[in-house]
């Protein structure tokens, strides 16, 4: 029996394994063949189908946030708070509608006869029926033989290094269908987090400060929104890793998740708190601040696109015209901008590429982003401190200011720890955090050396050649990879 390759799907989420076809072959089951570079390729039987936990978790967050927002809107209606009610409804409906459109588009339901599914989408219950579909597929998987499978070829990473020969896994139809569901919910989780949960959390926190009391339902909604935002940010981070290293079998350890949760949680919480506190003191000034951030991150990919004099990517969708492709790119850019307003998106857009993602990450963008964001948060907090209202008379304001600044610093620290120690492909980096810090420290020592004392300092200590060190390190990594293969 032969193995036939079908469509490939890129990236999975944190709890499930991706299905990526980097090579198309036809080999008998259990065979060992030769790869493109002469490496041995081991074809093994398809792995056990993993439960769609990410689909279930995203559905639970969607339903919980929707129900809490509905209950809170009922309370606002009874209290006569029309403004809070209207804005709460808007921040629930907009991402919900986009979620239904995304699920319908990914599963191509418009060209299929599925009236029940489309009706559930009209009721904004599309994630619920999709979750049920995924659970049914998982329960039925493995009960009968699947003659056609998809092949995924990957290399294993151990302690950040590529080890062993490339291996090909047989991916059955059930696994591929579950991968489609996971990829669809991955997109909806990001949309729900940054187009719905972030403005919802900001609104409810602002309303709580302005009204000077906390409703239990409002607190629950804020907690669920914060969890949804952190989850969406984690999906972005893991997706960036899987796209960058799609030739490897990437697995994140619990320590990596721990660092990412603290990194993203502190970053997002500090950012939202800074914007809300600033808006309570200077209400109308927060609008130009938000619009400036939105326009900068929205037009940045387009400016790079025009600077490269590139052309529109083709085959994003076969039925799309140039106008349809432009609309899709604008929506993707808008989502990208909304993510970067509150946290680092972990990816850079390349509108000229078919995948729309920059495969080679530019660490300078990361450094510039966090430097700019840190100073912006500090400025917002200082302005709030200068124009604060009497409501904060019972709060130790200087301590709160210090806490917000320290929390953002801790977020950056956990990010550095993740890239230095917990990143699954850290040994494949051309340079890491340790190299940069060592270079900076060596430069400072060279500047502090006395110039007139007659002591001769070796040139390699005065001006360390970082490129030579990195070249040696890259050679070692390549040698290790070649020997392991």
UniProtKB/TrEMBL annotation:
Designated name of the protein: XK-related protein
Family the UniProt entry places it in: Belongs to the XK family.
Membrane-related topology note: Multi-pass membrane protein
Places the protein is found: Membrane
Entry's transmembrane regions: 55-76, 83-106, 118-138, 219-243, 284-303, 323-347, 367-385, 391-419
Classification via Pfam families: XK-related (PF09815)
Family annotation (InterPro entries): XK-rel, XK-related_adapter
Gene (name only): XKRX
Originating organism: Pygocentrus nattereri (Red-bellied piranha)
Major location (coarse): membrane
Keywords carried by this UniProt record: Membrane, Transmembrane, Transmembrane helix
GO CC terms in record: plasma membrane
């Amino acid at each position: 029996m032969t193995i036939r390759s079908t469509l490939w799907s890129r990236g999975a989420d944190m709890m499930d394994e991706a299905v990526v076809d980097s090579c198309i072959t036809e080999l008998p089951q259990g065979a060992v063949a030769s790869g493109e570079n002469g490496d041995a390729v081991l074809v093994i039987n398809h792995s056990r189908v993993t439960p769609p936990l990410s689909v279930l978790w995203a559905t639970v967050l969607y339903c919980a946030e929707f129900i809490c927002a509905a209950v809170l809107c009922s309370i606002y209606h009874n209290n006569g708070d029309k403004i809070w009610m209207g804005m709460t409804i808007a921040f629930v409906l907009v991402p919900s509608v986009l979620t239904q459109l995304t699920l319908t588009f990914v599963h191509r339901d418009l060209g299929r006869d599925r009236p029940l599914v489309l009706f559930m989408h009209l009721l904004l219950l599309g994630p619920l029926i999709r979750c049920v579909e995924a659970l049914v597929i998982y329960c039925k998987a493995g009960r009968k033989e699947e003659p056609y499978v998809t092949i995924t070829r990957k290399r294993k990473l151990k302690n950040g290094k590529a080890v062993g020969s490339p291996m090909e896994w047989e991916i059955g139809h059930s696994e591929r269908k579950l991968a489609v569901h996971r990829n669809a919910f991955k997109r909806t989780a990001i949309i729900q987090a940054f187009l719905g949960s972030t403005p919802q959390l900001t609104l409810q926190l602002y309303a709580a400060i302005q009204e000077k009391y906390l409703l239990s339902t409002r607190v629950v909604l804020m907690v669920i929104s914060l969890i949804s935002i952190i989850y969406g940010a984690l999906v972005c981070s893991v997706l960036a890793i899987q796209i960058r290293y799609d030739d490897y079998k990437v697995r994140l350890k619990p320590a990596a998740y721990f660092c990412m949760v603290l990194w993203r949680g502190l970053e997002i919480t500090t950012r939202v708190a800074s914007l809300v506190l600033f808006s309570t003191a200077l209400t109308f000034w927060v609008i130009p601040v938000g619009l400036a951030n939105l326009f900068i991150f929205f037009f940045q990919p387009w400016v790079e696109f025009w600077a490269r004099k590139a052309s529109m990517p083709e085959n994003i969708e076969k039925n799309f015209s140039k106008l349809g492709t432009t609309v899709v790119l604008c929506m993707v850019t808008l989502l990208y901008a909304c993510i970067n307003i509150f946290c680092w998106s972990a990816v850079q857009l390349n509108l000229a590429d078919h995948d729309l993602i920059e495969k080679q990450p530019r660490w300078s963008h990361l450094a510039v982003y966090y430097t700019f964001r840190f100073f912006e948060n500090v400025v917002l907090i200082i302005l709030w401190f200068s124009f604060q209202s009497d409501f904060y008379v019972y709060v130790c304001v200087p301590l709160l200011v210090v806490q917000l600044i320290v929390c953002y610093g801790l977020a950056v620290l956990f990010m550095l720890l993740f890239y230095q120690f917990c990143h699954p492909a850290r040994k494949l980096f051309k340079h890491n955090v340790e190299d940069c810090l060592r270079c900076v420290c060596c430069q400072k020592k060279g500047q502090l050396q006395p110039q007139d004392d007659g002591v001769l300092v070796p040139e390699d200590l005065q001006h360390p050649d970082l490129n030579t060190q990195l070249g040696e390190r890259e050679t070692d990594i390549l040698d290790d990879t070649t020997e392991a293969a």
